[in-house]
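look at this one:
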Amino acid sequence: MVLDTSKYEELLKNAGFTVHSGAIDFLKKYGGLRIHYPHAKVANMDDEMHFDPLIIVTHVRAVDVKAYGGVVGKELCPIGEAARGYLVLMMAEDGEGYASYDNTFFRAGTSGSDAIEAFCSGREMESIPLEHGWENATD
């Protein structure tokens, strides 16, 4: 099934995000999906992720997403959230998945489905170091 992503595209663009084919291709398959998965560090606790730009545009700032993209030299587009909304999930045009929270930044997977698998399996993700003073970079 392929979802109509025109509403997602419009919302993301109007909120100032870069919208590219990598993110749109992902959202055509997974847009609106919510996944419950085992918490990576706490036994008997579930976590949740979603791929809903309708939620993202209410509290994720385009300037922050752009700054994370600058660290890896790629245009990133937010596609969802994980860890009960603590992590913003972003995708590069080449399909790589990233996750961030304040001064924490990860490469979550080589593709959207690989990033989902990383979260659901508890696989360790590649930490991407941020420069000293990062917390002031997006103000």
